Amino acid sequence: MAAGAAAIGLAAAGLAVTAAPAMAGELGFAYITNTESNTVTTISVSTGGTATIRVGNGPSAVAISPDGSLAYVANTAANTVSAIRTDTRSVIATIAVGNQPAGVAFNALGTRVFVTNAGSNTISAIDTTTNRVVALSAVGSAPTGITVTPDGTTAYVANTNSNTVTVLDTTTYQRLAEIKVGTRPGRLAVTPDGSKVLVVNTGSGDVSVLDTGSNLRIQTVVVGSGPTGIAVAPDGLRAFVSNGADDTVMALDTDPATTDSIEVRWSVRVGHRPTAVAVSPDGAKIYVSNSESNTASVIDATTALVTTADVDTGPAGVATGVPQTLTAAVSLGDSFISGVAGRWQGNGVRETLSGSDILGTDRAVYRCGQLGTNTCKREPKIVYGRSFDNKCLRSYSAQILAADLPVTRRINLACSGADTSNIIATPLKGEPPQSRQLAQVARNYRVKLIVLNVGGNDIGFRDIITTCVKAYLRGTARCKGEKATAFTNGLVRAEANVTLAIDKVREVMNAAGYNRDDYRFVLQSYPSPVPAGAQIRYPEANTYDRYQVGGCPVYNSDADWVRNVVVPKIGDSMEYVADQREVEFLDVRDLFSGHEVCARSAAQATNYDNHLKPQLGNEAEWARFLDGTPFVGQGNVDESVHPNYYGQQALGSCLTALYQYTGDKRNHLCRNVPGKGAEHVVLDQID
Description:
- The strands form 9 sheets. A 7-stranded mixed sheet has the order 33-30-34-35-36-37-38, with helices on both faces. A 5-stranded mixed sheet has the order 1-29-2-3-4.
- Mean pLDDT is 89; it is low at 1-25.
- By secondary structure, it is α+β, with helices and mostly antiparallel strands.
- It contains 13 helices and 38 strands.
- The longest helix has 33 residues, at 479-511.
- Helices cover 20% and strands 32% of the residues.
- The two termini are 33 Å apart.
- Helix 9 packs antiparallel against helix 10 and helix 10 (479-511) runs parallel beside helix 12 (556-581).
């Protein structure tokens, strides 16, 4: 995630990412609030040169607007906030707020600034256009730190005297939850994907890890003595904690791809009484304010070497950043791209499901016991967030989030059950049409990539699979004979409807002021979730294994029809539409080859696997098996035969490779590398 999203997450700790005045070769500036001298020191990241800005009494925290044009400083002793223009380094407004303002954070659009008032137990909301307080909300006792999720919808407030975190809706200012954390919580940071909030608890010497989907505390990490500040690197792989009582900074491993449990990786000594910490947008440097040394420590993130810069007296908050424009990549469509089944890290059958991690396949577990497998709690919102409530089922491992794209935000607007009408004009599950949601994104960001994966529900693909399963279980005629005509008719209908959906997206982008060359538009096909019949590892006559164990209850001939006719014809049809409408085409029909449900060259998880050491992607099935059978019954039946976590990772790797392609070919094909994991994907160009 690029700097703009990190700015929102780090602002609570007096930390933020700022777009500084552009200079030749300039990498940005560090902003440091100096509590005792009533100033802000700016340091050039490139040259080390400094400048000073005078603000109100007792400045303690700073936040930078997402576009980098404004800095807001909380003046604790003056009960005010100073608004600073970053290009001229001048104070343009002084705003009265509540008693003892202690934390500052922006919403995603930079239209609101939220200020914690520790002395009055409230949050002030400032309109950045008028620089006036427009709302006041009561929270817990002595609110200090505040952070806002990257999508700007939710604020997390640390209440130091209540030992809680209040969760607020940033539009209505209503309380959504109250979460118990450690002793004397202070500052917070949100991960770039918005899935977790990390809270430093100064009194108990630890960090509380909160899941934003369920608003549950899912882990407690012991750190140094008297932790005071926290920041997450822009790529989300590391978090850094300043320990005020032992003069150290610790690095925590927060990489979701390598660990489900956040751990301390290294520690380094800095100046006396470190207060706040921030990370440069490129992740190369870590900045620390040392409140009793009157210095700032600069840590090389690769070597952990520490250098020192002199600042004014009582340094408290830190902010770093570079000039940037907020950009976005957007996914539109149905369940295959929304991330349905992203909860499952492979497939595994286990008779005793209560309290287990299901052989390490369930990514929605937390608070697992010492054994790590049989005493887990389970919450699907850990994976699907609030979209679990309306069943759009947008997982945090969805393709657009799994892709490594050089944009500020990757935004998933797809929804389970959507057809082309829900792209064009028809609301779904309480949400506006996806084209209307796209219009809002297009106004707030510079959209660089749109990926559309839709048409399967227009064709009736789910109905085809259901009919094939029923035919096998009932021993009736093959579904191919019953559904062939309906499939052909559905394909013709989908071709016309997908064309209309593409035209609608173009219309929305044109209305937002975009030319076609301003963004890439990709129409994607569907991967086959099942192999050809001869590649199914369970004999056709063994109904029990195909149904109860493998989760692939279909005849061989029907599997052949789906794998070799249905999926390829859908792909060919989408390629034709893409050519006609002059958008790029991404063919993923064979991406899961060898990793489909029940494929001979893949396997289910075993008793040797658990969520701490899950089955590897090079061995696993990449699509969810048929869930909801009497024996399996692990999750939601809607997750069946969709790309699982590994499938979404493979699709993300494919999208990464496509975005890196700079040639003039419009049609692309992705394939996996046999024997390798989901990160090993090859992109080819096709005529």
